[in-house]
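agent> step 3/5: call structure_predict on target 'Transcription termination/antitermination protein NusA' (Leeuwenhoekiella aestuarii).
agent> reason: downstream docking stage needs a structural representation; sequence fetched in step 2, passing through unchanged.
tool.input:
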Amino acid sequence: MENIALIESFSEFKDDKLIDRVMLMAILEEVFRSTLKKRFGSDDNFDIIINPDKGDLEIWRNRVVVADGEVEDENSEISLEEARRIEPDFEVGEDVSEEVKLIDLGRRSILALRQNLISKIHEHDNTNIYKQFKDLEGELYNAEVHHIRHRAIILLDDEGNEIIMPKDKQIPSDFFRKGENVRGIIESVELKGNKPAIIMSRTSPLFLEKLFESEIPEVFDGLITVKKVVRIPGEKAKVAVDSYDDRIDPVGACVGMKGSRIHGIVRELGNENIDVINFTNNLQLYITRALSPAKITSIKINDENKTAEVMLKPEEVSKAIGRGGHNIRLAGQLTGYEIDVYREGVEEDVELSEFSDEIEDWVIAEFSKIGLDTAKSILEQDVEDLVRRTDLEEETIADVMRILREEFE
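tool.output (status=ok):
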């Protein structure tokens, strides 16, 4: 009964862990064999009988009877005199099976056995969690905010699994409270030591793609394919969609009447502006669509350098570049081409690089980052807007504008 009582106490672990009774018994046998090996030097001559239905476990040691005084290995051999204390009719050469009680292993061995069992169950539990979430990589997942830290929030799912969402995986406008449900994708799962580290992301382009699958039935059913997604999280995104069914308008189906379908996705992403465009293999048309809402006059493509020179009317340039240069940057990422913007009919304009003797290179680079590469493209801008869009101070921008105006005067 001592064995049964201890096994029952061990099986309490089963209630809190992702482990069934049969697996618990398998772990028990492994742990007991390890203990027997340490206690007796070998477990080869031991039989461990487990009844998973009752939670019962018996340990039997098998030894060969040898003549008195000829025992060389006490673990595998037993003297005739000792054997006959068990049963009086044993003879030399016969096998003796004797039950080993847990109490015979000693208190220290039992404590070590229990610790080993806990460790093995935790290891099994962590392995199961790792496999479970590894299969969920790239999928949408919901979890509840458990703890808010400076560099990450800790989430718990319905099964109590810990999920981490680092600060750089959160949309800048995200603000979470303890107990709030959060949706993201399982971006990566790694084993750190024996513990799985599960990372959730809301900034990945894949998160937006999965939201399309979740919220738009035609995408979920495969009638519409999301070809590519590019994002500046919380600011702007571009999604290229396609359909093999000519009767379906991919953009219209994704956006919905008056934006009804995409509204939920925009709200989930903290009002991130989402441009949905029709994918096409016609590169000129694809770049034209990618630069929406700007209207393009002409395009010159260099496939070798993967660049595109786009000509626009002056009033369309700011639309093509977008706030903070987001539109042109995302269009380039979506198409895979570096896009340069030129103003139509502005022949007297001068490249900003021509002023490198008066304007420092790093200042020129700051303007280039937001798509302003010529003198007039900067003079057309508002000083306050340039301060907001660049890392330049108002005094520096005013000085640059003074230099550029002198060129045209």
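agent> step 4/5: record observation. The longest strand covers residues 181-192.
agent> proceeding.
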